[in-house]
Specification:
By secondary structure, the chain is of the alpha+beta class. Helices cover 31% and strands 36% of the residues.
Length: 144
């Protein structure tokens, strides 16, 4: 499910305050972002896409959707793949990653789109995860 926000931006050409629109979502290839801006005064604009959410935009997503966490509840069918993903995300040793899973520690605290990306990767390995909302902001629509 894509996530949308709008953030204020100053036009680099004329200095007018405008709105930059951002979209973040998870695809089979991972997290994808896109953004666009068009100044209503001078027509200056830009568009972009990427695979990460910039820090200042991340803050706007958290304000809009809240802060989310993910913990691994069970490693599933391919435990080595799940542990590898946890290790890469947390920059820990295999034994530390396994301890985090056994104790159901939070693996990530981030935007909903970033949590959904990690959820997708872990569920591909057969892991069971627990996703919880822990920040402020309106609840996003539920999946149907």
């Amino acid at each position: 499910m894509p996530h949308y926000i709008s953030v204020p931006i100053t036009c680099p050409r004329c200095g007018t305050i405008g709105t930059e629109h951002w979209c973040a979502g998870v695809t089979p290839l991972g997290l994808r972002t896109s953004n666009g801006f068009r100044c209503e005064c001078c027509g200056c604009g830009h568009e972009g896409d990427g695979d990460q959410i910039p820090d200042d935009v991340r803050e706007a997503f958290v304000l809009a959707e809240g802060l989310w966490t993910l913990a691994v509840v069970a490693l599933g069918a391919r435990p080595l793949g799940s542990i590898r993903i946890v290790r890469e995300r947390t920059s820990t040793s295999p034994s530390e990653a396994l301890r985090m899973v056994r104790e159901r520690e939070i693996i990530i605290r981030a935007t909903l789109a970033e949590v959904e990306q990690l959820r997708m990767l872990l569920e591909r390995e057969g892991a069971q995860v627990l996703v919880r909302r822990c920040g402020q902001g309106p609840r996003p629509p539920t999946r149907s």
